[in-house]
Write a structure and sequence with these properties.
The protein is of the alpha+beta class and 425 residues long. The protein has eight helices and 26 strands. It folds into four domains: 2-28 and 192-340, Molybdenum Cofactor Biosythetic Enzyme, Chain A; 29-49 and 169-191, Molybdopterin biosynthesis moea protein, domain 2; 57-153, Molybdopterin biosynthesis moea protein, domain 3 (Molybdopterin biosynthesis moeA protein, domain 3, Beta Complex); 351-423, MoeA, C-terminal, domain IV (Beta-clip, Beta Barrel). The relative contact order is 0.13.
Length: 425
């Protein structure tokens, strides 16, 4: 019956994933130190406690003055004060200048800063000697005609007091933490971490370090998927390898649902007699098994597993081939995790890039081809695009999002999705 059903497009599948996940949104919040908030998702807007910068300051070492006091190049002015960063000077008297250093607060009365390279400290002046005291600051020759406002960073030109600088639903990057700190936010209100339970199915799977028996393979998906979930800020509940029996799979689903928001499995979503995930999921909840018009990653399962408390955990069943599992996590599971945290679930914007290869025989499905950047600024293709070749995912810088049935000729523009953007969604 499944083989007769039309395949979903990837866009249709992602829309269904997001619609089915949104009702399971995480609502619990906690306040954490900004120092410890990397990767967390904001539960409330961050509002600036102050103006940034808090006062007019200089972006250059030089001299603060009134532009009208230097109407011609070569004007000489008395230097009456010295203003390092972190200090507040006196109001500037007409016809005088203040020696000022980058970040120093521009004194009242000054309306321009002339960089020191365009000035000449005259004998007996403070000049470049930053250790000189307030007395005997001497004179400066201004060798240009200054323009009002030059080299001055205005109060609040970056951020206005009370303005939102980070919005709810933002994943906190290093630069976002720096911005939060710059407006005085020592604590941030964030969502609790998503809880993601993970297990693999298959009697053929063994763990690295064990002696590999005939017919067995090492379980790479457990490492890949666990690491992807950690990068996404999840609390990972690792249930290991589940035997290929219906009862063992049902028991694993019950255990996972009791602890997690999202359950991710790899393997067991095809139609083999030993693939027990689908009947187990239907016995413990509900499940849709989809065929998606994409390569790699055609089979995908999505559903809900009941909890004893009347709630449910979401289930995403990924294919077992390592590249298929990797790609469908990046596209599907990441969308689910973003949806339950109130984040924008759209895929990253694809970049137009040049293909430095030929792809004359495309699949009819939408393809995600492993490629990397070359020295000439184009993309080269990994030779073997099989869904079992995990070396391609390590070699690659990104994926070409290629529409179904579209041949690629050398020099064509293609849609490039950097892996860094996909992994950090």
């Amino acid at each position: 019956m499944n083989a007769l059903r039309p395949m979903l497009t990837l866009d249709e599948a992602l829309a269904r994933l997001v619609a089915g996940s949104t009702p399971h949104a995480i609502t619990q919040t906690e306040s954490v130190s900004t120092f410890e908030a990397l990767g967390r998702v904001l539960a409330a807007d961050v509002l600036s406690k102050l103006f940034v910068p808090p006062a007019d300051n200089t972006s250059m070492d030089g001299y603060a003055l009134r532009a009208a006091d230097a109407p011609v190049a070569g004007t000489e002015l008395v230097v009456t004060q010295r203003i390092p960063a972190g200090h507040v000077g006196r109001a500037l008297a007409p016809g005088t200048a203040a020696r000022i250093f980058t970040g120093g607060q521009v004194p009242d009365g000054a309306d321009a800063v002339v960089m020191q390279e365009q000035c000449e400290a005259l004998p007996g002046s403070a000049g470049e000697d930053e250790g000189e005291g307030e007395g005997g600051l001497g004179r400066v020759r201004v060798n240009v005609v200054p323009v009002v406002g030059q080299w001055i960073r205005r109060r609040g030109e970056d951020v206005q007091q009370g303005a939102p600088v980070l919005r709810r639903g933002t994943r906190l990057t290093p630069q976002a933490l720096g911005l939060a700190a710059s407006v005085g936010a020592a604590q941030l209100m964030v969502l609790r971490r998503p809880r993601l339970a993970l297990f693999s199915t298959g009697d053929e799977l063994q763990m690295p370090g064990e002696v590999l028996r005939p017919g067995a393979i090492y379980n790479s998906n457990r490492y890949t998927l666990r690491a992807l979930a950690q990068v996404a800020g999840c609390e990972v509940i690792d249930l290991g390898i589940v035997p290929d029996t219906l009862e063992a799979t049902r028991a694993a689903l019950r255990e996972a649902a009791a602890q997690a928001d999202v359950i991710v499995t790899s393997g067991g979503v095809s139609v083999g007699e030993e693939d027990h995930l689908k009947p187990a999921a239907r016995a413990e909840g509900e499940l849709d098994d989809w065929q998606i018009a994409m390569k790699p990653g055609k089979p995908l399962a999505f559903g809900r597993i009941r909890r004893a408390d009347g709630g449910a955990a979401l289930l995403v069943g990924l294919p077992g081939n390592p590249v298929s599992s990797f790609v469908t996590y990046l596209l599907a599971v990441s969308s689910v995790l973003r949806a339950i945290q109130g984040m924008n679930s759209a895929l990253p914007l694809a970049l137009p890039m040049r293909a430095d290869f030929d792809w004359p025989h495309p699949d009819k499905r939408r393809e995600f081809l492993r490629v990397r950047l070359n020295e000439s600024g184009g993309l080269e293709l990994f030779a073997n695009q099989s869904s079992g070749v995990l070396t391609s995912a390590v070699w690659a810088d990104g994926l070409i999002d290629n529409p179904g049935g579209k041949a690629i000729a050398r020099g064509d523009a293609v849609r490039f999705l950097p892996l860094a953007a996909l992994v950090s969604r």
